Amino acid sequence: MCSRSPGDAMIALDGVLSCNYHSSMKRDGKLHLALHVLAHLAEAGDRPTTSEDLAAHLCTNAVVIRRSLAGLREAGLVTSVKGHGGGWTIARPAAAISLGAVYAALGARGELTPGRVPDLSGCLIERAIDEALDDFYAEMETLLVRRLDGISLADLAADFGRRRAEWAANAQTPAALNG
Amino acid sequence: MCSRSPGDAMIALDGVLSCNYHSSMKRDGKLHLALHVLAHLAEAGDRPTTSEDLAAHLCTNAVVIRRSLAGLREAGLVTSVKGHGGGWTIARPAAAISLGAVYAALGARGELTPGRVPDLSGCLIERAIDEALDDFYAEMETLLVRRLDGISLADLAADFGRRRAEWAANAQTPAALNG
DNA sequence: ATCTCATGTAACTATCATAGTTACATGAGA
DNA sequence: TCTCATGTAACTATGATAGTTACATGAGAT
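^ Those are the sequences you sent over. The predicted structure of the assembly is below.
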């Protein structure tokens, strides 16, 4: 089950495309999920979106969405409202949310760094390698965050806008989207 | 079981230190393992080292070592000889082996890149994010490899040499090594 | 009031990657 | 031919994360 309904913020592709519910979000990372959700929330603007709706769009489970958004809420990137008419809303304009902020909000240690087990062996070679790799990974992490800080959600949204325009122009051949 | 015997290439720390066999190499990555093995082989020079010996030093299993070294052999970084007096030997001087070469030899896709599942949903937002992240990860991968190419095994060995000297100077207080 | 919707969260299962293990075939000296 | 060591398949164990179920909590709608 992962089809769209005409009224929502998505481009209407109903009946044409669907994704296999159980094999989709298998090994793709927390960052990807969070960005996708945020992009949808940015599209929705002020109107709250339920985790159920988001889950349908992302072909995943509502609880998975809530888990991810819980972290983003603590970081002040989104807000949530319970009950009737409730749901999730983006807390800042998309241009004011950097991918670095999202990455940080996820506590995304380990997205790059493999994580290290403390060295109990006393092997000096191991120590040298541990330190070298620690330094190296820290350096890469810095580069990664710096680069992510330079990209905003609005940049992704712009890219999305470009795609939508392209899609509208080629609307005659929707089959090309299946490739 | 992970104690050293006095005659080998390791600094003799017998009886002083041991590591818990079952909880050591749990989440540390293929690169770390390969580098550690290579560093030991570099220390050993021309004399072949058995996977059993290496496993004892690294507190892991001989088959794990052989699995890792099989990849490195295909890349021409190490050689192996069967039978009596056999074992593993480093194929080039340590200065001529870059960490980038090791990384490549491991086919270490996924050390950084989370890997992506093909997008079947047709969601344009998803596509924009997929491409942005693909580009981003490719960029980081390039930076990572470039940086790794700039470090040789000999650099790590030099670091090891420095440590050994320090250790020898402070040999009176071996307890400090336990911290 | 209470009904319904939606979040918040705990607890469980499923899946995947990798480390660890066992077992055995193969090849090379002694 | 005996022993050592690699080469490899097949299995188990572990940990991370996605997916699922279930239920408590809170906030409007009636």
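Confidence is low (pLDDT under 50) at residues 1-27 of chain B. The CA atoms of residues 112 and 140 of chain B lie 8 Å apart.

Shout if you want it in another format.
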